[in-house]
Specification:
Rossmann fold; alpha/beta; binds magnesium ion; globular; 5-stranded parallel sheet; 8 helices; two-stranded antiparallel sheet; 15% strand; single chain; disordered N terminus
Length: 237
């Protein structure tokens, strides 16, 4: 699928100036995973479908749960925040992910929304649930991350109640320790007796290692990062 530069800019939410270094037809320069997320409508459709499934599941169980007694934990990158502009820039320069380049990207607070994420977050809050974001972004990136979320319309207290990052490089990428803290953090903030009923992510490990009384919903991110949910981007997974 070929897009004009204007369409590409609109798609990524970037200014034309910011896209000045992006060729009009960059798909051939990109990894298949990057191109799929950037240009295929299937990616947005899949993300929205996962959030639709998660919403339907929430609706099927929340009626039996008192308001304020439950929470959903979401990963951030490629689950709520779309960083495809970062990956495009890396592909076009022939470079891969590095902590320094990633840190610089996070400080721009320029990530866009994964389709369906904001609606899901608002649905959970309206249904009486809490939202906790547990991310492997660094604690040094927390302020810019929260500013980025704010610019996307996701505000602390109103839309999410917890945002847990990790120390770099020493902090573990495995999130179980932080998952276990979420109910206690909510209680300490004044939201007592909360149970986590679902996790949403784009990696297979965006949930606790041990099975529990929760559901897991996973978004295909084209195989860009980590232990992704689908083996290959798009159809035929
Ligand atoms: Mg992620």
């Amino acid at each position: 699928m070929k897009l004009s530069r204007l369409a590409l800019a609109a798609l990524l939410g970037l200014s034309l100036a910011a896209c000045a270094s992006v060729p009009a037809e960059p798909a051939g320069e990109l990894k298949p995973s990057t191109a799929w997320v950037a240009y295929s409508p299937d990616w947005a459709a899949e993300a929205e479908e996962v959030y639709s499934e998660a919403t339907a599941w929430i609706d099927s169980v929340e009626g039996d749960l008192p308001d304020g007694s439950w929470a959903v934990v979401l990963d951030l990158d490629e689950t709520v925040m779309n960083n495809i502009a970062y990956q495009i820039s890396r592909d076009l320069t022939g470079e891969s992910f590095t902590p320094d380049s990633w840190h610089a990207w996070t400080q721009e607070a320029a990530a866009t929304l994964v389709p369906g994420a904001a609606e899901f977050v608002r649905h959970v809050n309206a249904a009486g649930g809490h939202i906790a974001f547990v991310t492997n972004r660094a604690d040094s990136e927390q302020l810019a991350t929260e500013n980025n979320l704010f610019s996307l319309g996701l505000k602390r207290s109103e839309d999410f109640q917890v945002l847990l990052t990790r120390a770099r490089p020493a902090g573990p990428s495995v999130k179980d320790g932080r998952y276990a803290l979420v109910p206690a953090m909510l209680a300490a903030q004044g939201y007592p007796d909360v149970e986590i009923i679902a996790y949403v992510g784009d990696n297979r490990n965006d949930k606790p290692a041990e099975p529990g009384a929760w559901e897991f919903f996973c978004i295909d991110q084209g195989g860009m990062y980590g232990e992704y949910c689908a083996e290959v981007p798009g159809t035929g997974r």
